[in-house]
Specification:
It contains 17 helices and 11 strands. It has helices spanning 3-12, 45-53, 55-64, 74-84, 94-105, 115-126, 130-134, 155-170, 187-196, 207-219, 257-267, 290-296, 305-315, 328-342, 344-350, 353-372, 394-407, and strands spanning 18-21, 27-30, 38-42, 68-72, 177-181, 199-204, 226-230, 240-246, 268-281, 318-325, 375-383. A 7-stranded mixed sheet has the order 7-6-5-8-9-11-10, sandwiched between helices. Strands 2-1-3-4 form a 4-stranded mixed sheet.
């Protein structure tokens, strides 16, 4: 192992049990010996040199290219040691901190997400083969954080619970119109239409997702009530009773937050309600991971709440509720990682070994960031008027309970304030 890398690791790794074998076969141990052991083998001098200068990008790149193997502990173990040493005299070492600081300083240049660029960025990730996503997502293909009401929930159960949790905050009534910004494979829109007898307009920039969602609406016989368009939300002009956006805001970019909320305010009716579900930071603003930005989500950015709130305030929207979901995404990613591992040969048949190693690193590093770093989920409820929603939050819990009964196949309870409906009674 070269002297520079050894000095860096000596300084970075104060806690944990990390072994590193260099290209020439020598092995050095770092940390205090606590916790599960992790053993990395850096196989080439090229990778060793790159890791010395930019570890947060060079480690995943070396792993993808087969120049680094993890003999013990897996990617999750490597990232656990990295994140657990942050702030303990470790990863805030001068060189690494300077590199990440530069990335933060230039983050706005990396997030000029015009309509054309936004579509290209989305296609880089979401237009991968649908067969790939079927290998690790739940049956409804929910590619966002699940909601683990109980720790022993299956992934499918937790994703249904997520849809209930979001729906309850929208306070839907029969006959209303709903805009789903970033509608994915259509599962949430279809759920809302069936449960509440509402009309849903979904928009996405992914050709793959648009095709699947449209087919699903027809298969469910809901094509007259649920429509999906291949369109940028900025091109819309209609007004809606409700707006929901799940897992899309991460792609907006910090430069465009004012545009997003201004447009949302324009699209929302005077008595409307909006629910934004997005990855966020519990800490201060920081740069997108270099690996994630380069290989997974180009143009993506995870905001601190302090970056989101000013744009909301200037839009004229009223913040009516904020909830922080902690560790739910870590458990979601754990399920995805296990499912991907179980179907790795199928993924390799669709793409190749390098892609599989990239995807493994992405899922495990993301899980680690939610477990040991500062990533969380923001659920921000918005309205145009401060008297649109009840003063007490208990209406959310009542709605979730009623939806749970419905999802379990029990007789659907009639809500206290439901209006007569043309098709079925809604759950409120």
């Amino acid at each position: 192992m070269n002297i520079l890398l050894k000095r860096i690791l000596d300084r970075l790794v104060r806690v944990g049990n990390l072994k590193v074998t260099g290209p020439k076969g020598s092995t050095v141990t770092f940390g205090d010996g606590s916790g599960e052991p992790v053993h990395m083998h850096i196989k080439t001098t090229h990778a060793e040199r790159a890791i010395s200068f930019d570890p947060m990008l060079a480690v995943p790149e070396a792993y993808m290219d087969g120049e680094l193997d993890i003999l013990e502990g897996g990617v999750l173990g490597v990232m656990r040691i990295a994140f657990q040493n942050m702030g303990s005299g470790g990863i805030d070492a001068t060189w690494s901190k300077a590199i990440e600081g530069l990335r933060h300083a230039f983050r706005r240049l990396q997030q000029i997400n015009t309509a054309a660029r936004a579509r290209r960025n989305v296609q880089r990730h979401y237009d991968l083969s649908g067969d790939l996503y079927k290998l690790f997502l739940d049956e409804d293909m929910q590619y966002s954080c699940a909601y683990f009401e109980q720790p022993d929930m299956t992934l499918d159960e937790a994703q249904v619970a997520k849809k209930r949790h979001i729906a309850a905050k929208l306070r839907l009534k029969p006959g209303q119109t709903v805009l789903d910004i970033g509608s994915g494979w259509g599962g949430l829109g279809l759920y809302l239409a069936k449960a509440f007898d509402v009309d849903v307009q979904g928009v996405t920039l992914s050709t793959e997702q648009h095709g699947v969602a449209t087919d699903r609406a027809h298969a469910a016989g809901l094509q007259d009530r649920v429509h999906f368009d291949l369109k940028d939300y900025r091109a819309l002009n209609e007004r809606f009773d409700r707006i929901v956006s799940v897992g899309m805001f991460e792609h907006v970019g910090v430069n465009h937050y004012r545009t997003f909320f201004d447009k949302s305010a324009t699209l929302l009716k005077p008595d409307g309600v909006m629910l934004l579900h997005t990855i966020g930071r519990s800490g201060v603003p920081w740069a997108t991971s270099a690996f994630i930005r380069k290989y997974i989500f180009p143009g993506g950015y995870v905001p601190a709440l302090s970056e989101v709130m000013p744009a909301i305030e200037k839009s004229g929207l009223v913040v009516t509720d904020i909830e922080i979901l902690r560790l739910h995404y870590a458990d979601t990613l754990k399920h995805w990682g296990m499912r991907f591992a179980a179907n790795r040969d199928k993924a390799k048949a669709i793409y190749d070994e390098r892609f599989c190693r990239m995807w493994e690193f992405y899922l495990a590093a993301s899980e680690a960031a939610f477990r040991w770093q500062d990533l969380v989920i923001f659920q921000i409820q918005l309205a145009k008027k401060n008297d649109t929603l009840p003063m007490a939050r208990d209406y959310m819990a009542k709605c979730e309970k009623a939806l749970e009964m419905r999802d379990m196949g029990h007789q659907e309870p009639a809500p206290a304030s439901a209006k007569p409906t043309r098709r079925r009674k809604a759950v409120e």
